[in-house]
């Protein structure tokens, strides 16, 4: 029993403290990203990036309104992309098909910067990883678009 008490008193306070600091760092990162996104939106940079992205994704069946969540997911990852999808879904900006197609694409090609840098640190060729991920995600999303026909293709709400 003495060992258990010693373990608890030695292990948990440092663990809880490190957990607190980690959560604080995550909260700060999320806040900075959200502010940066609002600034980019105000400066119309997101509109410009969405137009470029839509040039490539229109052939996949993804509508222009779904480009922002897709862009966020590609750059920042599934978690942020999912948040953007939920926000667009809640605001009735995306169709059911948009949600499915963006979700499929992001399953295969998300957090492109972070993941690529991680693999490059292990010796992989970064540009090759990016190209392969985009090609695979595009082909699979295109195929899903061909065969997926939801009963209601209208706005979800």
Description:
The chain is mainly alpha-helical and 157 residues long. It folds into two domains: 1-43; 46-157, no CATH class. The protein contains seven helices and no strands. The protein has helices at 2-42, 45-57, 67-76, 78-90, 96-108, 112-121, 126-147. The chain is elongated and about 65 Å long. 19% of the residues are buried.
How is this fold's topology laid out?
Layout: H1 2-42, H2 45-57, H3 67-76, H4 78-90, H5 96-108, H6 112-121, H7 126-147
Helix pairs in contact: 3-4, 3-5, 4-5, 5-7, 6-7
Nutshell version of this structure?
This protein is an all-alpha fold and 157 residues long. It has helices at 2-42, 45-57, 67-76, 78-90, 96-108, 112-121, 126-147.
Q: Give the terminus-to-terminus CA distance.
A: 56 Å
| Helix and strand pattern | HHHHHHH
Uncertain segments of ≥5 residues (pLDDT<50)?
none
Biggest sheet features? none
Total beta-strand segments: 0
Radius of gyration, in angstroms, nearest whole number: 20 Å
Shape: elongated
């Amino acid at each position: 029993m003495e060992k258990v008490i010693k373990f608890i008193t030695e292990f948990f306070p440092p663990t809880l403290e490190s957990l607190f600091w980690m959560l604080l760092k995550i909260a700060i990162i999320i806040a900075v990203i959200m502010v940066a996104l609002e600034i980019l939106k105000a400066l119309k940079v997101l509109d410009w990036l969405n137009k470029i992205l839509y040039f490539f994704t229109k052939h996949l069946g993804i509508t222009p309104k779904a480009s922002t969540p897709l862009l966020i997911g590609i750059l920042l990852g599934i978690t942020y992309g999912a948040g953007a999808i939920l926000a667009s879904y809640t605001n009735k900006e995306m169709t059911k098909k948009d949600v499915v197609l963006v979700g499929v694409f992001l399953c295969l090609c998300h957090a492109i910067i972070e993941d690529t840098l991680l693999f490059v640190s292990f010796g992989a060729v970064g540009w090759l990883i990016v190209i392969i991920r985009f090609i695979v995600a595009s082909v699979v999303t295109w195929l899903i678009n061909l065969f997926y026909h939801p009963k209601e293709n209208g706005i979800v709400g």
